[in-house]
């Protein structure tokens, strides 16, 4: 993913979040080809692939959602839907057995953006089950005010533990 449109530090760190421009994208790359395969994200960040390799999941941090994209044989992507998460979610882990998505999230973007150790950014973990159904199950499985974890960038489950 290209999570920012601008490369200049001031523009990408301040102008993009404040203006809310949906200019970030997903790029396909191999040694002979580079092409934008999906765009229109506010902050395309986390990305992962389904266990069957047929779908791509993209976390749109400032959009507060995860996008489900169908992967075609030529590696182009077709948008299928977006699932609201209600948080600023970062990276995505996919459970290879269940297909569940696990996302590390930031429940309060301002505390994360302003980072003050006296008022630390909180952490949140969201699990999305049955993402391909009309009504996926979105569950908050962990929340902390920042006293244990200052921001969560990723979450994974292994052996029944988070």
TrEMBL record:
| Annotated cofactor note | Binds 2 calcium ions per subunit.
The source's superkingdom equals Eukaryota
Look up the record and name the cofactor or cofactors this protein needs.
Ca(2+)
Class of enzymatic activity (EC top level): hydrolase
Q: Known InterPro entries for this protein?
A: 6-blade_b-propeller_TolB-like, Arylesterase, N2O_reductase_N, Serum_paraoxonase/arylesterase
Q: Name one Pfam family in it.
A: Arylesterase
Q: Please name the GO terms that the record assigns under molecular function.
A: arylesterase activity; metal ion binding
Q: Which UniProt keywords apply?
A: Calcium, Disulfide bond, Glycoprotein, Hydrolase, Metal-binding
Reaction(s) this enzyme catalyzes, per UniProt: a phenyl acetate + H2O = a phenol + acetate + H(+)
Which residues take part in binding Ca(2+)? 45, 90
Against SUPFAM superfamilies, the record matches this protein to: Nitrous oxide reductase, N-terminal domain (SSF50974)
Q: What is its EC number?
A: 3.1.1.2
Give the family per the record: Belongs to the paraoxonase family.
Official protein name in the record: Paraoxonase
State the organism of origin.
Answer: Platichthys flesus (European flounder)
Phylogenetic lineage: Eukaryota, Metazoa, Chordata, Craniata, Vertebrata
* Underlying gene: pon
């Amino acid at each position: 993913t290209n999570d920012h449109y601008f490369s200049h530090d001031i523009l990408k760190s301040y102008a993009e979040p404040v203006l809310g421009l949906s200019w970030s994208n997903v790029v396909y790359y191999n040694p002979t080809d580079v092409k934008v395969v999906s765009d229109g994200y506010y902050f395309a960040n986390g990305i992962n692939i389904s266990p069957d390799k047929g779908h791509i999941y993209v976390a749109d941090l400032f959009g507060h959602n995860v996008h489900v994209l169908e992967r075609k044989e030529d590696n182009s992507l077709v948008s299928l839907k977006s699932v609201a998460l209600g948080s600023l979610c970062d990276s995505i882990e996919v459970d290879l057995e269940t297909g569940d998505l696990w996302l590390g999230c930031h429940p309060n973007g301002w505390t994360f953006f302003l980072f003050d150790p006296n008022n630390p950014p909180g952490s949140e973990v969201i699990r999305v089950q049955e993402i391909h159904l009309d009504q996926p199950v979105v569950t908050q499985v962990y929340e902390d005010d920042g006293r244990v974890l200052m921001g969560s960038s990723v979450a994974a489950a292994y052996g029944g533990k988070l």
